[in-house]
Amino acid sequence: MKNLAHGTGRRKTATARVYLRQGKGEIVVNGKAISEFFPIEQQVTMIKEPLVVTDAADKYDILITVRGGGITGQAGACRHGISRALIELDETNRPTLKANGFLTRDSRMVERKKYGQKGARRKFQFSKR
After folding, report:
1. How far is 66 from 10, CA to CA, in rounded Å?
2. Which of 16, 47, 120, 123 is the one with CA 20 to 30 A from 103?
3. Residue 81: what pLDDT?
């Protein structure tokens, strides 16, 4: 089966590669059904949001490979990737997806630990005497 469009989505340290194919609405994540891979229903709904907004829920089969991060970050990356793929497929989807905030890359990441400190911002306890 030929890929119609692809998109790369990212959130925190998770990266998702999304491939859209002609089909009847099946979503496969890392070789598993979406509800099997993401156990929380809220995450499944979050991933399907771009499809619902653009009325493409049952038009395409979606193949996703996702790596890195935790399950919430991976779900966000999948949503971002699906949105990008839908735009590559049809440019008229852009205003709808942009209005719902699905194209914005959520850049919030864990701040790195600094040397001479206990964590990113936490310092070692200061002793006056």
Report:
1. 9
2. 120
3. 96
Q: Is 34 in contact with 28 (CB distance < 8 Å)? A: yes
Please state the rounded mean pLDDT for residues 36-63. 93
**Residue in the block written with tokens 């990441």:** 109
Residue identified by tokens 């997806």 is: 97
Instruction: Give the separation between CA 100 and CA 92, rounded to whole angstroms.
Output: 14
pLDDT beyond 90 at 68? yes
Q: Could you identify the residue written with the tokens 């089966």?
A: 1
Give yes or no for residue 120 having a pLDDT over 90.
Answer: yes
Report the side by side order of strands in the sheet with 32-33.
3-11, 14-22, 60-67, 27-29, 32-33
Band of the pLDDT at 57, cuts 50, 70, 90?
confident
| Contact yes or no for 64/28 (Cβ under 8 A) | yes
Report CA dihedral (43, 76, 19, 90) to the nearest 10 degrees.
Answer: 100
